[in-house]
Amino acid sequence: KQPLIEVKNLKTYFPIKKGLLGRTVNHVKAVDGLNFTIYKGETLGLVGESGCGKSTTGRSILQLLKPTEGEVLYEGQNLVDMNPRQLRKLRKDLQMVFQDPYASLDPRLTVGDIIAEPLQIHGMVSGAEKDRRVEELLNVVGLSSYHAKRYAHEFSGGQRQRIGIARALALNPKLIVADEPVSALDVSIQSQVINLMQDLQEQFQLTYLFIAHDLSVVKHISDRIGVMYLGRIVELGDKQELFENPKHPYTKALLSAVPVPNPLVKRERIVLQGDVPSPANPPSGCTFHPRCRECMAICRTEKPELKEVNGQFVACHLYN
Ligand code: SF4
Ligand code: MG
């Protein structure tokens, strides 16, 4: 396994300003110290409730948001230190598919122009070559050249997401960060888009960071899964192991909400108490402690680090 992306102590904070002079009074710690690797050719699923920092993580890796601290190594080069000109060169390798195919496609452009736009920005095609490449990309995502002259609003949600994927593929990327790519779609369409993404991964040797708020969405496509809570990863590891033998109490709670295919298997539903606390004022110690059924005295004061436990990574004092 070769690393494609190595994330080291990544922090992305947003200032909270107050008053006429815009004095910074606090920070939202959206991403608060992440360490993980994305290996070449894998799909790493990233899950957690909304507001846990998943999207900020994806955007910080791609440098669409500037991290406050830490490193993002892409094939060994630190993206965080790069100037815009250096980043532009790597931009084509690192693409994003957005959650909302309704909002992310420009309504004034034809689908052909939407897909060709990144090619033109990077000066990669001209004239007839452009039309040929657009047709190729449309075919690859299950649409046809006939769709190129139409506008995004003429398509269904699933088709729009295919257009978003075609656009992301235009520059032959190495990594695609897919930020909840199926969350806005009907359940019946979700698996079609996920299957398409899996086919494309094989065809083009893509690496995915696949973000979702629901474990059942990433179950099929992921090789490994990371679970986030309040800007940190609380558990990370092999998908099968995570589903069969979850370690962190938060993972257990999330998993208890996933329907079990076999009706004879009874799994206790763990209902999380209270809301996710504000990332501007995270609880002391283990930030999950106010909602944890297994909370101990140490949990209120000491932040557990992500440590290896039987090949998986978990941040919890139960595993010391
Ligand atoms: Fe629960 Fe303590 Fe583990 Fe946090 S560290 S998840 S509070 S047992
Ligand atoms: Mg999000």
Helices and strands in order:
Blueprint: E1 3-18, E2 23-39, E3 43-47, H1 54-61, E4 69-74, E5 77-78, H2 84-91, E6 94-97, H3 111-121, H4 127-140, H5 157-169, E7 175-179, H6 187-204, E8 207-212, H7 215-219, E9 224-229, E10 232-238, H8 239-244, H9 249-256, E11 307-309, E12 312-314
Helix pairs in contact: 3-4, 3-5, 5-6
The site of magnesium ion has 3 residues, from α1.
- What's the end-to-end separation, in Å? 28 Å
Strand content: 25-35%
Rounded to an integer, what's the Rg over CA atoms? 21 Å
- Which blocks of ≥5 consecutive residues have pLDDT under 50? none
Largest sheet: 8 strands, mixed
Looking at the overall shape, the CATH architecture of the largest domain is: 3-Layer(aba) Sandwich
Percent of residues in helices: 25-40%
Keywords: ATP-binding, Nucleotide-binding, Transport
Protein name: Dipeptide ABC transporter ATP-binding protein
Family: Belongs to the ABC transporter superfamily.
GO molecular function, one term: ATP hydrolysis activity
Features:
320 residues; Rossmann fold; 2 domains; four-stranded antiparallel beta sheet; 28% helix; binds iron/sulfur cluster; binds magnesium ion; nucleotide-binding; transport; ATP binding; ABC_transporter-like_CS; Dipeptide ABC transporter ATP-binding protein
